[in-house]
Amino acid sequence: MHSILATLEKCRAALVKDGRAETAKLVSLAILDLRIDLSKIPDSDLKALCDAMTPDDHAVERLNDPKSPGGQRRRAELKLVK
């Protein structure tokens, strides 16, 4: 698995160098999946992390309100999909 991970990281670097950013992002997802499997992090811990990083409804409203401080900023969301 570690050798596969190293190969994927080389592939991602080559894709970035060649200007294939979207494809590099897909390879990054595969890398992340392997790293999660190798680290043996339980799904419950990953879900807790995703839940902690997902803004509540009021926070989303504040982020989208142009009158609020920091309005119109975009926030990345993480969702666990297994």
- Largest sheet, strands/sense/barrel: none
Helix and strand string, N-terminal first? HHHH
Helix content: 55-70%
The gross shape turns out to be: flat
- What is the radius of gyration? 17 Å
Number of helices: 4
Structural class: mainly alpha
What average pLDDT do the residues reach? 80
Low-confidence stretches: none
Describe the secondary-structure layout:
Elements lengths: L1 H16 L3 H19 L3 H11 L3 H8 L18
Key traits:
82 residues, mainly alpha, 2 domains, 4 helices, 66% helix
What features would you describe in this structure?
- By secondary structure, this protein is an all-alpha fold.
- The chain folds into two domains: 1-40; 42-82, no CATH class.
- It contains four helices and no strands.
- The protein has helices at residues 2-17, 21-39, 43-53, 57-64.
- The longest helix has 19 residues, at 21-39.
- It is flat and about 40 Å long.
- The two termini are 19 Å apart.
- Residues 59-82 are annotated as: Disordered.
Can I get a quick summary?
This protein is mainly alpha-helical and 82 residues long. Helix content is 66%, strand content 0%. The protein has two domains: 1-40; 42-82, no CATH class.
